[in-house]
Amino acid sequence: MADPVLQICDLAYQWSGRSAFSVAVADLTIAKGESVLLLGESGSGKSTLLSLICGTILPDTGTVSIAGTNISAMGGGARDRFRAEQIGVIFQQFNLLPFGSVADNILLPLRFAPKRRKRAGDAADAATNLCSALGLPAGTMDAKATALSVGQQQRVAVARALIGHPPLIIADEPTSALDADSQAAFLDLLFAQMASHDTSLLMVSHDPRLGERFDRVIRMEDVAQIERATA
Amino acid sequence: MILRLSIASLFARALTVGMTILAIALSVALFLGVEKVRTGAKASFADTISGTDLIVGARSGSVQLLLYSVFRIGNATNNVTWESYQDIAARPEVDWIVPISLGDSHRQFRVMGTTQAFFDHYKYRQGRSLAVADGAIMDDLFDTVIGADVAATLGYTVGDPIIVAHGLASFTEHKDQPFRVSGILGKTGTPVDRTVIVSMEAIEAIHVDWQNGAQIPGQSTPADVIRDMELTPVAITAALIGVQSPLQTFALQRAINNYPEEPLLAILPGVALQELWGIVGIAETALLAVSAMVVVTALIGMMATIFSSLNERRREMAIFRAMGARPLTILTMLILEAMLMAAIGALLGLALLYIGLMVAQPILDTTFGLWLPIEAPTLREVWVILAVVAAGAIVSMIPAIRAYRMSVADGMMVKT
């Protein structure tokens, strides 16, 4: 089997804020092309785990490997570059830079990832194709990001995550701002796009009903030990 | 792309950014304006008198004598008697001498009594002579030659009558002896533009019926009678002197300063000007420092604006981070933004300066005789603009470093 897209081994992280808080993950692996739903209530350490995977925070012990590379061993700048190359990120909402056009937003990650830009080929064409594949009206590219509806904004965020085909997409409750019908439509589009490039997906949600559409559903409490000092 | 996004981000906050830029623009315009007025005033003052070796007046301060005799600022404390004047005029070192008699006014302009020699020997701006633009130099006792600004402000043409007032800002007028404008001088950019010139005899003539600064009640001598009178001046206010040889300047100065009959003062105009700069220099520096402080205040205002925008832009920074931007990129973006604001502000300030100059130039010229040339920006001004941009960058480091720390701590997650 090829390298897994994501592999976490014996990870421990202690948040050194006012409230002592620690996360420990013994093993979490996502294979190429696999879609995984990570279920967890708010405050269950999901955001911290995602930050660890994206490399914006570093584990105290253990390793996080993306596409076979241990990102914990990298320097800060290289890690940021690596994230841009390898991971597409979709937030809950307010994904877009409000002052930029749709095109600006979609092309933004390519600005920090030269290899990914190369993979995307003609970036403007790729962005336009993604937009139409995601059902965004023609001419959206030049629109201001804030001129779109919330559902459309989330689709732009998907296009931005997918452009240049990064091997892993991280989505943090991307459907929580959408109604049930839009949620289904959103996931249809997301899965259709990912299937064509064998992209892996790690999606975080608190909604177990979404589970049936994923290859695998895992619960936060099963993969991670969270400890909270009651101060 | 980052630059374009920075500009877009600035546009999205157009109101606060606009205010900040306006503050910077006004402060830069003020700073450059002060600088312009300073250099303009210096040049204008230095150009006022040229070719005169000594100025003689009653003993007072050299700066005071220079100010009232040449710039018509302030008043003489005392006069020089006609006898002393003639003694000095008769000295062998003296090539030419021009008497000046001040003290009366016409409207807001001062009246100066002098002789034909004034038109021959008074030089300004590196040796230029006065030129009559219209009419002729006075011929009759009650003729007057007026400066360009006098004619322009009061709308006088050759042949118009003028009534001279006694003293300055006075309500008592020499009504019985009206003058006639015989000539109008060309524009010089010196106080001569704001002077009404009459003959020495005319000054005596209008004071025939006056004693101790007031008109003798009921006495009014007709002009024709005055014309036949002996009108030798009793005293003059000051005199401009040209010497035979520059080597004699100091000897003559010493002789006049030691004149036994009367306490007199002879000054070299250039030296007195230097002395004047010495006095004005402190105020000049203070003014420049204050306007520099205004620029600094505007930049600190910009820093405050950036600071207050940081919190609402956390999300924006998190997006940049998630897309792979390094914290250093965020730092750079904020500094770039500040430099853009400072640069736009500084250039707008320069534009404001030119607009201000175009508006103020004629006003300053007519009211203060201060001519500010409108020229391409000097190297010094270019440096000021670059310094403002650099200072903007330095000042913005403080919020930028905070943003850097925030983006390191927040990563791509923002808990709002």
From TrEMBL, chain A:
One Pfam entry name: ABC_tran
Domain of life of the organism encoding this protein: Bacteria
Residues annotated as transmembrane: none
Domain ABC transporter: 6-231
Molecular function GO labels: ATP binding
Keywords, sorted A to Z: ATP-binding, Nucleotide-binding, Transport
Keyword Amino-acid biosynthesis assigned: no
Name of the protein this chain belongs to: ABC transporter ATP-binding protein
Automatic annotation (TrEMBL), chain B:
Membrane topology (UniProt): Multi-pass membrane protein
Residue intervals of the ABC3 transporter permease C-terminal domain: 289-407
Pfam family, one: FtsX
Localization in the cell: Cell membrane
Keyword terms: Cell membrane, Membrane, Transmembrane, Transmembrane helix
Protein name listed in UniProt: ABC transporter permease
TM region positions: 12-34, 263-280, 286-307, 328-355, 382-404
Domain MacB-like periplasmic core residue range list: 19-205
